[in-house]
Design brief:
TIM Barrel, single chain, 2 domains, binds the ligand CSC[C@H]1O[C@@H](n2cnc3c(O)ncnc32)[C@H](O)[C@@H]1O, 22% strand, alpha/beta, binds zinc ion, 8-stranded mixed β-sheet, Urease, subunit C, domain 1, 4-stranded parallel β-sheet, 446 residues
């Protein structure tokens, strides 16, 4: 652990997330060896911990690091490639052909570095990824000092990454073994979706997830078309099929969930499963609306994700929270739906719980890792600060993020990336932009 992992951060407002909705004025977080030792009034901290470096955040709110619970990091290189399409034509006619043509280790490395830079600048300290060549994303995240949960993917069709179901599983387990015990990198099984993974691999994945004690991350009930196709093909809805195959458990992280019956919400709650809400991707692809207020009312653990940059088109998690709040209020015709503290919970403790990391991250309490984000609320568009939590979500946004720490290491220092070379990343991205832009991605255009 480096020296800088021990310090005292003094914030104008400290928002620990636990207990929910609490805002502490003029409080400090004492960090020792990358862990939170204490949270206490600043004046007291200055006396008791005078020997440590004092970090001053006089105009700032200090919150737990944000957790992007569903993304495809390397898809930053496909940002804006195919807008204004619904999910299946978007995937089948544009994204999958482009991936077949371009995705390889270097693509994933460069795209993941771009995503890491964007996410750190937006206050994201941990992301859960689902993409080909996860080893590359793991290396990029670890080198950047970010936490990541790398998806051990499975899909029924061959790719540059793997030939068949056995190959995907073998490579996934090798990836898991290679990173076992790493401080920042974890893994999760990540079968793509019920409509692209057959029964046999899904059954095996459920068994492996139990044996290895890993989460199970899958796109689920993303569109009405997915549900109708499952009914026609299997005689049941996707969630029911997953339940029959042994996937419905506290490990399950279902992403999107725009089509849920009341009984399905009840069984997700009863099983302790988690849902990742991706409102902007759902809106952009016109996939449907995740019933956030009903999920929260039923006690389902809800996290938030951006999805990939090709269907969003950014990795701005605070922006995603604002969208989630506005959409919930409109959809429920209830301005009290999804209050700001509940939204912040989704991006912190809710994400941590979904990923099985809630003992380690998700709130600013003693014992947890010092994953923290400082936001400067002094800009005109953030003034006055009646309610810092509301301000962060509805007025400040990612532009206010000035400093980011993971396990006490400062990855963003007064808006400057410390572990990534932004100029080099942008230059490499421009090269990919030219290569990808020069190609024809529309499978229908002959
Ligand atoms: C097996 S790697 C992940 C796979 O998922 C594709 N993808 C990206 N966004 C979505 C989405 O919203 N729904 C379904 N699939 C998606 C991505 O392009 C990769 O092929
Ligand atoms: Zn996705």
């Amino acid at each position: 652990m480096n020296d800088s992992a021990s310090f005292v951060a003094h914030a104008r407002w400290l928002i620990p997330v636990e207990p929910a909705g609490r805002v502490l004025d003029h409080h400090a977080v004492v960090v020792r060896d990358g862990r939170i030792l204490a949270v206490l009034p600043s004046a007291q901290a200055r006396e008791q911990f005078a020997d440590l470096v004092q970090v001053e955040l006089p105009r700032h709110a200090l919150i737990p690091g944000l957790i992007n619970a569903h993304t495809h990091a390397a898809m930053t290189l496909l940002r804006g490639l195919a807008d204004d399409l619904p999910l299946m034509p978007w995937l089948q006619q544009h994204i999958w052909p482009a991936e077949q043509r371009f995705v390889g280790p270097q693509f994933v490395r460069d795209g993941s570095a771009l995503a890491a830079a964007e996410m750190i600048q937006a206050g994201v300290t941990c992301f859960s990824d689902m993409y080909f060549f996860g080893e590359e994303t793991a290396q990029v995240a670890a080198a950047a000092g970010m936490r990541a949960v790398i998806g051990l993917i499975a899909i029924d069709f061959p790719s540059a990454y793997a030939a068949d179901a056995d190959d995907y599983l073998r490579k996934g387990i090798a990836l898991h073994d290679a990173w076992r015990g790493h401080v920042l990198i974890r893994t999760a099984f990540a079968p793509h979706a019920p409509y692209t993974v057959s029964d046999e691999p899904l059954r095996r994945i459920a068994t492996f997830a139990e044996e290895l004690d890993l989460p199970l991350h899958i796109h689920l009930h993303e569109t009405a078309h997915e549900v109708a196709e499952s009914e026609a093909r299997y005689g049941m809805r996707p969630l029911e099929r997953l339940a029959q195959l042994g996937l419905l458990s506290p490990r399950l992280i279902g992403v999107h969930a725009t089509q849920l019956l009341a009984g399905e919400i009840a069984s997700l709650a009863a099983q302790g499963a988690s849902i990742v809400h991706c409102p902007e991707s759902n809106m952009k692809l016109a996939s449907g609306t995740c019933p956030l207020p009903a999920l929260l009312a039923a006690g389902v653990n809800v996290a938030i994700g951006t999805d990939g940059a090709a269907s969003n088109n950014d990795l701005d998690l605070l922006g995603e929270l604002k969208t989630a709040g506005l959409l919930a209020k409109l959809g429920a015709a209830d301005a009290a739906a999804a209050p700001a503290p509940a939204l912040l919970h989704m991006a912190t403790l809710g994400g941590a719980r979904a990923l099985g990391l809630d003992e380690e991250i998700g709130s600013l309490v003693p014992g947890k890792a010092a994953d923290m984000v400082a936001l400067d609320l002094s800009a005109p568009h953030c003034q006055p600060v009646h309610d810092p939590i509301s301000q962060i979500i509805y007025a400040a946004g990612r532009e206010a993020v000035t400093d980011v720490w993971v396990a006490g290491r400062r990855l963003l220092h007064e808006r400057r990336l410390t572990t990534l070379d932004a100029a080099a990343i942008v230059a490499k991205t421009a090269e990919w932009g030219e290569r990808i832009g020069a190609a024809d991605h529309n499978q229908d255009s002959g």
